[in-house]
């Protein structure tokens, strides 16, 4: 059994919402899901599937990651990404990276080609160059036409997967919070906060990163499953629906467990999301209707 889920950020519904814009988001979500789905169907790893899925979302200007990254108060794009392999607990991440087209691929290289977990700033950019990552000029991120003009984009992107061998993986990528101070790092590249995978579940979050750091959110879900013996859905209900709102923390997350159960929950008006399980139809969701 394989399973794949992705998110494209949680938040309020953009005021300039339209049927045409919804169609664009749905198409983009389906396209990115298809990228990872194809890899899993061919027998490739969960790690490959989440990396490729997130890279596809990074390339799409509709999302706040890669090309569509929001800008800091200084008008710069500073990108964060992480990837984690649940079977080995290997993880790689980059923060405040400015020149890589696909930060998730650089995060994967940190995992596979260094003895470190997280590289940040100039050192991360130098590493991206050193490994021959696809580099882009800063103008690549300065999009003149945002899909919803003047509004912050919905958010971070992420993917979680279970592959046919029973291995889990998670990946997350973001441009951070619109107007954030230069140098600010959110939850997405912090292992255990915005991204986590072990042999029980894989988690990727989106929302107000400072809260996801304070609550060590992705690991909180994994710990509820591992130590509390909680089913994944109950762990996420307790965290995202019951606890986070009491803290004033807005956002959501996607997760998959070792049995291929997918959960996608959020306490905001919407979360762009999509999922597919082996032998089942793909599902695309935006608002809080019939998705798991
Ligand atoms: N969690 C991301 C951050 O704080 C932002 C988001 O998900 O929208 O950087």
Task: Tell me the number of helical segments per DSSP (H or I, 4 or more residues long).
Answer: 7
Main sheet summary: 8 strands, mixed
Give the topology string: H per helix, E per strand: EHHEEHEHEEEEHHHEEEE
* Number of strand segments: 12
Structural class: alpha+beta
Termini separation (Å)?
18 Å
CA-based gyration radius: 17 Å
Strand order of the largest sheet: 4-3-2-6-5-1-11-12
Bound molecules: aspartic acid
Mean pLDDT across the residues is 94
Low-confidence stretches: none
Ordered list of secondary-structure elements with their pairings:
Elements: E1 3-11, H1 19-41, H2 46-59, E2 79-85, E3 90-97, H3 103-113, E4 118-120, H4 121-130, E5 157-162, E6 168-174, E7 195-197, E8 201-207, H5 209-214, H6 217-226, H7 232-247, E9 251-257, E10 262-266, E11 270-277, E12 283-287
Parallel strand pairs: 3-4
Antiparallel strand pairs: 1-5, 1-11, 2-3, 2-6, 5-6, 7-8, 8-9, 9-10, 11-12
Helix pairs in contact: 1-2, 2-3, 6-7
Bound molecules: aspartic acid (ASP).
Residues 9, 155-156, 174, 176-177, 186-188, 194, 206-207, 209 line the site of aspartic acid.
Give your account of this protein's structure:
An 8-stranded mixed beta sheet has the order 4-3-2-6-5-1-11-12. The chain has a 4-stranded antiparallel beta sheet with strand order 7-8-9-10. It has helices at 19-41, 46-59, 103-113, 121-130, 209-214, 217-226, 232-247; strands spanning 3-11, 79-85, 90-97, 118-120, 157-162, 168-174, 195-197, 201-207, 251-257, 262-266, 270-277, 283-287. The radius of gyration is 17 Å and the shape is globular. A hairpin with a 5-residue loop joins β11 (270-277) and β12. The protein contains 7 helices and 12 strands. It has 292 residues and is α+β, with helices and mostly antiparallel strands. Bound molecules: aspartic acid (ASP).
